[in-house]
Amino acid sequence: LADVHVAISAGLARYLGESEGFDPASFEIVHYGIEPGPEPPPLPGAPRLAIVGRLVPIKGHDVLFRAVAAAREQVPGMTLDVAGDGPLEAELRASVARLGLEDVVSFLGRVSPVAPVLERAQLVVVPSFGEGFGMVALEAIERGRPVVASDVGGLPEIIDDGRTGLLVPAGDAASLAEALVDLASDPGRAAVFGAAARVR
């Protein structure tokens, strides 16, 4: 009975069409926005990654851990900060131990505000299996950080693939590892992506 349907991304409109029977063309797309903050600090010199989000299955943490284990074969200094809490914490800590990443992955718990975590990172990773929008990706590019993200939901509307970050298939640890190595091993390219991300 509504006169107008509003979706926060074209990806969400497509999902609602597939799952709920809406006509995706009936939606007005209104993306989330955030106020730009002060100029962010430059990227760190170390290959430090960050993931921010609830510790729940849809966020893809386990895929990221496997990707980091593989990527470290080519970028041995790579580390990962995990910001967030949730029901999977014990299981994810066990995955980290099983992969031998205890000295690589730091669980920070729930962090607010998240800007300091993003600013310490060379790359921000959003390996989700689904995202209606992807607020963390928006917050990361506002802080001038390149993003490696899954090609799902609203994320392709935030990340300009090959210009402000890289998009990979969801759940594909090998492709994610390749993208992480691609940017983490080339700080100059990562810095160019981060600057373009800030402008976007």
Explain what this protein looks like in three dimensions.
This protein is of the alpha/beta class and 200 residues long. It is built from eight helices and eight strands, in the order E-H-E-E-H-E-H-E-H-E-H-E-H-E-H-H. The protein has helices spanning 10-20, 61-71, 89-98, 115-120, 135-142, 155-158, 173-184, 187-199, and strands at residues 5-7, 27-29, 48-52, 79-83, 105-109, 123-126, 147-150, 165-168. A six-stranded parallel β-sheet has the order 5-4-3-6-7-8, with helices on both faces. Strands 1-2 form a two-stranded parallel sheet. The longest helix has 13 residues, at 187-199. The protein is globular and about 55 Å long. It starts with a strand and ends with a helix. The relative contact order is 0.18. The mean pLDDT is 96.
What is the string of helix and strand elements?
A: EHEEHEHEHEHEHEHH
Strand content: 15-25%
Cα(first) to Cα(last) distance is: 36 Å
- In total, how many beta strands? 8
**Low-confidence segments:** none
Number of helices: 8
Mean of all residue-level pLDDT scores: 96
Helix and strand topology:
Blueprint: E1 5-7, H1 10-20, E2 27-29, E3 48-52, H2 61-71, E4 79-83, H3 89-98, E5 105-109, H4 115-120, E6 123-126, H5 135-142, E7 147-150, H6 155-158, E8 165-168, H7 173-184, H8 187-199
Parallel strand pairs: 1-2, 3-4, 3-6, 4-5, 6-7, 7-8
